[in-house]
Amino acid sequence: MGTKRFINNTGYNVSVTLAVPEGADPGPSVFTRNFQLSVAGDQVYTYSDDLNPFLNGISVAASDTEQGTIVGADFIGSQRGTTIDNDLNMNDTVLINLQSRNIVLAFENTGVGSQ
What we know:
single chain; mainly beta; Immunoglobulin-like; four-stranded mixed β-sheet; four-stranded antiparallel β-sheet; 1 helix; 6% helix
């Protein structure tokens, strides 16, 4: 089952979109999943079933309504074994961080979510 833990360290509410390929190989996404993560949110999210447990990509966006700025990050994997593919699929936790008004994603294994 496709499950990951998402931790929001940005100081903003964020929108997360996950792209899921069919089966085990990177390729065209067969569906996307969208969810919201509040400020300081920490959520385990199941995005797919056992037949499609991997991720093709993650898109994260936040809007600063006071300053009218949108910050975001996109990770798109296209080939098995690349750094991005490994980040997306070999880790169970996605850390959503803010650095110089840009969203930066980090990946680690905490034993909470699992592919």
